[in-house]
């Protein structure tokens, strides 16, 4: 059974830059006419490809699953620029898209919005921080809050892999040599691009392509005075891709800003993704969901 079987799925573009940047609209099957809350869900994939995971058992709400531009063809600032356009689309063209997609009077309450993101969970937090007054709650799953840490910026020791380099540094350069100037990629569900992010991480070159602007560095944004909102962060203690220390630093800094900020950091045994089913009744999620769900639906 497909994870999308319980939904009617429609696709449209929320932005065009050389190519259309799509957003999938997921509407639960059998939904009665009415106005419903919304979830904007950002897929993972190391900013280079697509990996979609859906929280299960979130009924009677619309899902919006946007794609976004990938590195190294684009930069982190390009990605965030696209998210600004996604916000505009949600508040201007989205109602017409829903009307086109459904034959009943089903609409989305743009004021009842929660953001969710896995792996690229930072995009969920960035999107919510940029629109904190209009976003009810935010969930970030194993997000990359500290891309300036050694795991992103330092090459792995030469002898760390007994079989030699898993992803040669030339992987990135060979890929870029095949790209035309100004080319844009925003979708690749085949995982064929995974070696690109693998090489960036293995050789400490992630920020060379993602960028180092303050807007791209969550901890620096907090230092600059940016505020967050009601937030639930999930991270695996043995995460070998995005170190858990980044989430710990981010939450510590959020609370240093304002002890009244409602934030839940849930740390559990497991690697990147935790390999757990994201059902709403899962005990590992209980405390965080008790925080965000009432605010989202209230």
CA-to-CA gap between the ends?
32 Å
In CATH, what is the class?
A: Alpha Beta
Helix content: 25-40%
Number of domains: 1
Strand order of the largest sheet: 1-2-4-3-5-6-7-8
Total DSSP helices: 10
At the fourth level of CATH, the homologous superfamily is Alpha/Beta hydrolase fold, catalytic domain
Oligomer: single chain
> Which consecutive residue ranges, at least 5 long each, have pLDDT under 50?
none
Biased composition (Polar residues): 161-171
Region (Disordered): 146-171
InterPro entries: AB_hydrolase_fold (IPR029058)
Could you describe the 3D structure shown?
Residues 161-171 have a biased composition (Polar residues). InterPro entries: AB_hydrolase_fold (IPR029058). Residues 146-171 are annotated as: Disordered. This protein is α/β, with parallel strands linked by helices and 298 residues long. It has one domain (7-297): Alpha/Beta hydrolase fold, catalytic domain (Rossmann fold), CATH 3.40.50. It is 31% helix and 22% strand. It has an eight-stranded mixed β-sheet, with helices on both faces. Helix 5 (170-177) crosses helix 6. The relative contact order is 0.16.
Ordered list of secondary-structure elements with their pairings:
Elements (H helix, E strand, L loop, with lengths): L6 E11 L1 E10 L5 E9 L19 E5 L9 H16 L2 H8 L4 E13 L2 H10 L6 E5 L8 H4 L16 H8 L16 H9 L3 H5 L7 H6 L7 E6 L8 H13 L5 E6 L17 H12 L1
Parallel strand pairs: 3-4, 3-5, 5-6, 6-7, 7-8
Antiparallel strand pairs: 1-2, 2-4
Helix pairs in contact: 5-6
InterPro entries: AB_hydrolase_fold
């Amino acid at each position: 059974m497909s994870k999308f079987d319980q939904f009617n799925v429609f696709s449209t573009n929320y932005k065009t830059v050389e190519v259309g940047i799509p957003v999938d609209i997921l509407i639960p099957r059998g939904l009665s006419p009415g106005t419903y809350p919304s979830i904007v869900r950002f897929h993972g994939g190391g900013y280079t490809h697509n990996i979609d995971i859906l929280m299960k058992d979130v009924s009677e709400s619309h899902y919006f699953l946007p794609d976004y531009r990938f590195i190294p063809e684009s930069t982190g600032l390009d990605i965030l620029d696209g998210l600004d356009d996604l916000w505009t689309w949600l508040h201007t063209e989205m109602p017409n898209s829903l009307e086109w997609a459904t034959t009943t009077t089903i609409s989305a309450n743009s004021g009842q919005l929660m953001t969710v993101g896995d792996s690229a969970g930072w995009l969920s937090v960035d999107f919510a921080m940029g629109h904190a007054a209009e976003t009810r709650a935010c969930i970030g799953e194993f997000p990359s809050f500290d891309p300036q840490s050694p795991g992103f910026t330092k090459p792995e020791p030469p002898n760390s892999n007994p079989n030699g380099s898993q992803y040669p540094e030339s992987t990135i350069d060979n890929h870029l040599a095949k790209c035309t100037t100004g080319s844009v990629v925003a979708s690749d569900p085949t995982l064929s691009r995974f070696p690109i992010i693998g090489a960036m991480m293995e050789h400490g070159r992630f920020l060379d392509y993602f960028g180092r602007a303050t807007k791209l560095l969550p901890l620096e944004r907090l230092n600059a005075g940016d505020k967050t909102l009601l937030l639930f962060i999930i991270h695996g203690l043995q995460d070998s891709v995005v170190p858990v220390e980044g989430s710990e630093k981010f939450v510590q800094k959020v609370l240093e800003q304002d002890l009244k900020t409602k934030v839940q950091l849930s740390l559990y045994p497991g690697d990147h993704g935790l390999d757990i089913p994201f059902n709403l009744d899962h005990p590992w999620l209980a405390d965080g969901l008790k925080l965000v769900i009432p605010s989202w639906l209230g």
